[in-house]
Design brief:
Strand content: 15-25%
CATH architecture of the largest domain: 3-Layer(aba) Sandwich
CATH superfamily of the largest domain: Vaccinia Virus protein VP39
Radius of gyration: 18 Å
CATH topology of the largest domain: Rossmann fold
Order of helices and strands: HEEEEHHEHEHEEHEHEE
Length: 243
């Protein structure tokens, strides 16, 4: 089979092209190496979890699996959890579900978003976003969807102004999915000093070409003079482990 034929065998999800050529159930083709690798996000147990959120997120199974496993790992550390960039609440549901199953309900999950789409300064961002993009949401609808998790705290408004209410807290896990250069850098600047030792920051969209000058550049610039190095993942995310 030629590479041209392989690249035509695609399926689309939220505007990205994902290549899903499977050998068996849990092994998918790793390009450009041409070998199949273990992909646990297609196993039945995780598909059952993903079914609960797939209508409420633009994040594909592989990235959601990483969020699940990394937040599960951090659930045993001191500190609360946070998510910046909530959209329809799917990834917040996933993180909260993971916290609940780990027995870490004593933690709070703080979620930050305008809950009405991209802010005004998105028009000047090097990404593809404009003001109001991803605005097909409402705070009331997301609160209803997440109603089974009483430990979720909502912070509606524009980042970083909404961080003021948690300035005295410490965090074990932070998921950053704000897309924009300015917002990503604001998240890094606020949460870096508040991460506990061994805590993690996971940044979405780091590895996608459309965000090279947005999310990726913001992360790279911020950590240029820090002892931690962002670890790029094949899923398009990056993670930072606080030393």
């Amino acid at each position: 089979m030629s590479w041209k034929t392989i690249f035509k065998m695609v399926f689309r999800r939220t505007g990205y092209e994902l290549y899903k050529i499977q050998a068996g159930k849990e092994y998918t083709l790793l390009l450009p190496y041409g070998c199949h690798t273990y992909s646990p996000w297609y196993e039945d147990w995780f598909q059952a979890i993903y079914d609960k959120i797939k209508g409420h997120t633009g994040i594909a199974e592989d990235r959601c699996y990483m969020l699940h496993r990394l937040s599960q790992h951090c659930s045993h550390l001191d500190g609360d959890f946070a998510e910046c960039g909530v959209y329809r609440g799917g990834s917040a549901f996933l993180i909260a579900l993971t916290l609940g199953k780990s027995g870490a309900q004593r933690k709070e999950l703080h979620i930050f978003d305008t809950f009405k789409g991209m802010p005004g300064f998105a028009d000047q961002d090097p990404s593809c976003h404009v003001e109001g993009h991803m605005g097909d949401v409402s705070l009331d609808a997301i609160k209803h969807y997440l109603r089974v998790f009483p430990f979720i705290v909502f912070h509606p408004g524009v980042i970083p102004e909404t961080f003021e209410t948690v300035k005295d807290k410490r965090f074990a896990f932070v998921h950053v999915d704000v897309d924009l250069y300015r917002s990503t850098k604001d998240c890094c600047a606020f949460f870096y000093d508040r991460l506990v030792s061994g805590g993690m920051m996971v940044v979405d969209d780091y590895g996608f070409p459309g965000y090279k000058l947005a999310a990726k550049q913001a992360v790279d610039e911020f950590f240029l003079d820090k002892p931690e190095n962002p670890i790029s993942l094949r899923t398009g995310q990056c993670m930072v482990i606080k030393l």
